[in-house]
């Protein structure tokens, strides 16, 4: 019946109606670039748009849907796409922060809650999850993704797709769009929209795995990236869109452009005009033109000139109509719009925020003592509800967020908590520093709240100097000189390069942008009611000159050696990051001991068993993340120094020892051969476990792969 309906519609559609289905238009909602051909009542009646983006709210979406269903010739319903990156009305932690929880179950539940809220606000599809592997914190969109590791990205992708979609026809589900395919996180110099030069090996090892996982999880749509990869803009990249996605993976969902990206093929220099741009995108496999209007206006000429065929257009329309059918829109075009809105899940938002707070350093200043009587809360991020939401949320109400100041006052009602911003996030006015420092004089501890504004991360927010903007360093220097213990909190959408603060503060905490429950979660961690459990999903650099930086680098021809000038090193900075991937402290003292392998040799069909004891040597409970790494000592391609193979979270009571067990298919140790297909090569491996990717602190054991007889 499904195929019959779609084929019947296709047979009745004019060329203009087909191109309308292939057009996503704005209609007064949020935009991320120039508006081309905004949808009007008249254009919708003519069927010149099959979907609208970033329009939400029951009244608005029902009005547009009624136009499409009741006042167009064929009555084909619209679908509404909306950016729901980390919550809709209820803001959850930004994805980079949430990735640091290393908790796929949490990732799925927050996506499910966000989907229910967005669907009840009229959305049928979200432009998420963002699956760009990111190893350059200058790039602002690092905030929207999972960080640097492809295994982490693959698990994040699967969880988010399952959470958003569930039963796709359900009025509480939305279609997921895996984006940006592919390589945006490798943008030249960290600049948004810039070209990416990525080797074929890096593409297949690092950048494609999260998208493979999204497709395997059933994602309904994929968005082509703005950037070019190795000279070919992704919106026209036949080998990756038609070849890898369609043919190799068998992806049969909708491929859409990013905002106005089809027209931007002219700016890339591969199309002379809109006709050529539209033809290139369609032949590459892009079904849906977001905003540029190129398909609607230019494909008729491209068809007449023989640049495209009607079969190309029909295939794209067929996939778009199939998506609408899977969303249940032909059965009930108002199924989401008229569904009851779920209550805000603030408990889930609090749980998520708690799991993302990352303790970077601690010289004993934390947790705050129960007898603390006076705290000075200083800095421009202390009482900044609007910044706690984080970048790129459309419907969230910042007034519902809990600030750090609010959270501490609620957690410590008997404590005298004084506050001064001192400086603004941006700007050069330092006249408030003296007042702020004066408040520190009588305080037992200073909580120094620094960082970025929310809109300094996200799209079009690359920063050449990802440190503290404005006069925040001057404020921090003055507070550090006060002689009081200083707990520094960093609100940001990326690692901030502040080595001087890491060295001098008595404690340093990455609080990211944690959403509606930010202040409460932060206060619970600072006071020790919750053990800090967040771990870094991205390596944290000491200097801008170390970027790009990540733990899984390949060995140098001359590895770093003490007292040897002719090795791979800087002459003006250390090689080591400020903090490694996976770093995060607990208030408990936890050690790993007795690494055991189930066997010393294995072959391709084996299942490997790895055990290690996690010991809590303190009188406090702790939630730890234990990482399993591997290294192939000799391979046909130079192997990374470490590769993440799994992780496990373990709750430890005071004084408790628990055995953490990993089971790993032997094929997980395969590398990509010269033809970029996985193969398990016989030879020696190192299996390692640790609380981060700091190679000096790992427990390791050898393992030998034998060829199958």
Could you explain the architecture of this structure?
It catalyses: Hydrolysis of terminal, non-reducing beta-D-glucosyl residues with release of beta-D-glucose. Keywords: Glycosidase, Hydrolase, Signal. InterPro entries: Cellulose_Degrad_GH3 (IPR051915), Fn3-like (IPR026891), GH (IPR017853), Glyco_hydro_3_C (IPR002772), Glyco_hydro_3_C_sf (IPR036881), Glyco_hydro_3_N (IPR001764), Glyco_hydro_3_N_sf (IPR036962), Ig-like_fold (IPR013783). GO terms for molecular function: beta-glucosidase activity. Residues 624-693 form the Fibronectin type III-like domain. It contains 21 helices and 26 strands. The protein has 709 residues and is an alpha/beta fold. The two termini are 52 Å apart. A hairpin with a 2-residue loop joins strand 7 (228-229) and strand 8. It folds into three domains: 2-30 and 37-326, Glycoside hydrolase, family 3, N-terminal domain (TIM Barrel, Alpha-Beta Barrel), CATH 3.20.20; 352-546, 3-Layer(aba) Sandwich (Rossmann fold); 590-705, Immunoglobulin-like. Helix 1 (2-12) packs across helix 14 and helix 12 (274-284) packs across helix 13 (294-304). Helix content is 28%, strand content 19%. It has an eight-stranded parallel beta sheet. It is globular and about 75 Å long.
Largest β-sheet summary:
8 strands, parallel
Radius of gyration: 26 Å
| CATH superfamily heading of the largest domain | Glycoside hydrolase, family 3, N-terminal domain
CATH fold description of the largest domain: TIM Barrel
Q: How many runs of DSSP E, i.e. beta strands?
A: 26
Secondary-structure class:
alpha/beta
Name the overall outline.
Answer: globular
């Amino acid at each position: 019946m499904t195929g019959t309906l779609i084929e019947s519609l296709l047979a009745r559609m004019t060329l203009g109606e087909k191109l309308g289905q292939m057009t996503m238009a704005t209609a007064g909602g949020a935009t991320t670039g120039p508006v081309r051909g905004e949808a009007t009542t008249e254009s919708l009646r003519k069927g010149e748009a099959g979907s609208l983006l970033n329009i939400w709210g029951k009244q608005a979406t029902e009005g547009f849907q009624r136009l499409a269903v009741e006042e167009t010739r064929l009555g084909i319903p619209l679908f509404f796409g909306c950016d729901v990156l980390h919550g809709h009305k209820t803001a959850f932690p930004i994805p980079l922060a949430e990735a640091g929880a290393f908790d796929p179950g949490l990732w799925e539940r927050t996506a499910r809650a966000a989907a229910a809220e967005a669907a009840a606000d009229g959305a049928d599809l979200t432009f998420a999850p963002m699956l760009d592997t990111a190893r350059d914190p200058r790039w602002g969109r690092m905030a929207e993704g999972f960080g640097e590791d492809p295994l982490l990205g693959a698990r994040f992708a699967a969880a988010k797709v399952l959470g958003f979609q569930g039963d796709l026809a359900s009025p509480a589900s939305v279609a997921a769009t895996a984006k940006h395919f592919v390589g945006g996180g490798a943008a030249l110099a960290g600049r948004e929209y810039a070209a990416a030069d990525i080797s074929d090996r890096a593409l297949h090892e690092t950048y494609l795995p999260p998208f493979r996982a999204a497709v395997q999880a059933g994602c309904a749509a994929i968005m082509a990236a703005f950037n070019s990869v190795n000279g070919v803009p992704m919106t026209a990249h036949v080998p990756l869109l038609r070849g890898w996605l369609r043919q190799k993976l068998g992806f049969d969902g909708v491929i859409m452009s990013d905002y106005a990206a089809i027209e931007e093929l002219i700016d890339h220099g591969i199309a002379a005009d809109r006709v050529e741009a539209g033809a290139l995108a369609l032949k590459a496999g892009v079904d849906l033109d977001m905003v540029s209007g190129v398909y609607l206006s230019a494909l008729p000429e491209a068809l007449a000139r023989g640049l495209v065929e009607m079969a190309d257009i029909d295939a794209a329309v067929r996939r778009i109509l199939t998506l609408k059918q899977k969303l249940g829109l032909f059965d009930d075009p108002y199924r989401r719009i008229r569904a009851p809105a779920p209550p805000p899940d603030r408990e889930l938002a609090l749980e998520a925020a708690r799991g993302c707070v990352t303790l970077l350093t601690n010289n004993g200043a934390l947790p705050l003592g129960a007898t603390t009587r006076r705290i000075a809360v200083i800095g421009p991020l202390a009482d900044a509800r609007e910044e706690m939401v984080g970048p790129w949320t459309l419907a969230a109400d910042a007034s519902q967020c809990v600030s750090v100041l609010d959270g501490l006052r609620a957690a410590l009602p008997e404590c005298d908590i004084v506050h001064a911003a001192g400086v603004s996030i941006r700007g050069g006015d330092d006249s408030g520093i003296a007042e702020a420092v004066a408040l520190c004089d009588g305080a037992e501890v200073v909580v120094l709240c620094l960082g970025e504004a929310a809109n300094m991360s996200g799209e079009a927010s690359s920063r050449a100097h990802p440190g503290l903007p404005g006069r925040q360093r001057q404020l921090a220097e003055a507070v550090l000189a006060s002689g009081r213990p200083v707990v520094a909190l960093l609100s940001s959408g990326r690692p901030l390069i502040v080595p001087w603060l890491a060295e001098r503060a008595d404690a340093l905490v990455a609080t990211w942008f944690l959403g509606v429950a930010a202040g409460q979660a932060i206060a619970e961690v600072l006071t020790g009611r919750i053990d800090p459990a967040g771990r870094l999903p991205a390596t944290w650099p000491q200097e801008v000159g170390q970027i790009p930086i990540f733990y899984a680098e390949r060995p140098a021809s001359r590895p770093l050696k003490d007292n040897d000038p002719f090795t791979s090193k800087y002459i003006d900075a250390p090689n080591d990051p400020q903090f490694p991937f996976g770093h995060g402290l607990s208030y408990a003292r936890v050690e790993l001991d007795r690494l055991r392998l189930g066997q010393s040799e294995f072959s391709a069909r084996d299942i490997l068993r790895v055990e290690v004891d996690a010991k809590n040597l303190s009188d406090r409970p702790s939630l730890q993340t234990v990482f399993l790494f591997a290294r192939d000592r000799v391979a046909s391609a130079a192997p990374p120094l470490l590769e993440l193979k799994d992780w496990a979270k373990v709750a430890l009571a005071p004084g408790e020892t628990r055995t953490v067990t990993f089971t790993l298919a032997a094929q997980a140790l395969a590398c990509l051969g010269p033809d970029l297909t996985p193969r398990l090569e016989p030879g020696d491996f190192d299996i390692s476990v640790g609380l981060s990717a700091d190679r000096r602190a790992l427990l390791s054991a050898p393992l030998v792969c034998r060829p199958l007889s």
